[in-house]
Amino acid sequence: MASTVYDVTTFPASVSPYTDIGQVINEIMADIRTQQSGQTTRPGAVIYIPPGHYTLATTAVIDRSFITVKGSGHGFLSEAIRDDVDHSAWTETLPGSSHVQIANSNQVGFLVDKSGLPGTNGRLNSVVFQDFCIDGVSSSKPYTGANGNGKVGIKVQFDSDAVRVEGMGFVYLQEAVTIRNADAYSITNNFIGECGNGIRMISGSIVGKITNNYIVTPWGGHSIFIENVENCLIGGNSLLWGARIQFKGVDRAVITGNKLVSNFSGMIVQETTCHEHLISGNHFRRIFGDGGPAPQDDLFGMVHLNGNDNAVSSNFFSFSVPSGSIVPSGATPTVVLVKSGTRNFLSSNQLTSNVAVRHVVDASATSTKVLWSGSSSQLQDLGSGTALVATP
Fold first, then answer.
1. 275, 276, 269: which is closest to 296 by C-alpha?
2. Distance between first and last Cα of the chain
3. Residues 358-384: pLDDT tens digits?
4. How far is 265 from 297, CA to CA, in rounded Å?
5. How far is residue 334's CA from residue 331's CA, in Å, rounded to a whole number?
6. Is residue 195 a contact partner of residue 204, using CB atoms and an 8 Å limit?
7. CA distance 323 to 223
8. Distance between CA atoms of 290 and 215, rounded to whole angstroms?
9. Which Pfam families does this UniProt record tie to the protein (predicted)?
10. Is 12 helix (H, G, I), strand (E, B) or coil?
């Protein structure tokens, strides 16, 4: 095997990878630093995790560019299903393939950070996590706050370019993926379940994509949280039960082709002013289920807009909640709330519901256009200069 390809089961580490794979990876990283010490002689390396069950007792720190940590399959198994039914006769009851179990509470599994090393100028480039499972072992809903175990699957703490998280499995974690200041990031084809928060992009970034993920979260956190980002693409994801994409200071995002099923209102939320979002071709399904308390009531909106020049077009909204379960009692649920801003645009959206629903333009919103997205009775206009063309 090439000197730049490391197998955690054959590397001569001080501990067994089955006892502490984090320590083994840290010793591999020390070897990489020794072997690749020159500015122009750092091709990076692959750290391979073969199929097996590994305990991670020490945080694995990735502090060099061009490092790929990869296994041979995401190994995802929904532990919620295991916990809710009798599994004594099942063939398997744990995630499989390349399966890493975080041992300690309030621990990060994989930390991308070189701030503790000399010579920290520049960014970390092309760090990849691929095809293995990170398991928090146990937790209880909503997997955050007092019920959370404090475990984070992957945390990118240092500024980075082209970080990739692909084909991974995450289960029973307070945070599956948290990435700070990443440009040109790619988070795709992952399974995230029974986690308090799915994907968190924090501090800021420019250009990136979150695509084709399965994300199952309850009511306590977010499926996807993004702040201070320009030009992100969120597409082709399936978000379930507590489906929530929350934006804070995000401009020019494209949110398209997603399937969102939630027990709660607020499936796409612009927490602070966000401009020029295109929200198109998504399917929103609001149902009634267990869990709670709800983050917001049914007047908050399945989509909550707070900014300028946002377009909500060609989406399908389905509302199916017993009338006696609507909060506040007797209210007409809001589908899209234009909370503030100017020149927001709703066009060609389809509504289906078991009760009366409506779009709401708040008093602080101006110059809103609503075209072919509902009848005149399905619009509450409190704004200024709203233009309405009702669905024929």
1. 269
2. 68
3. 999 999 999 999 999 999 999 999 999
4. 7
5. 9
6. no
7. 27
8. 18
9. Beta_helix_2 (PF18835)
10. coil
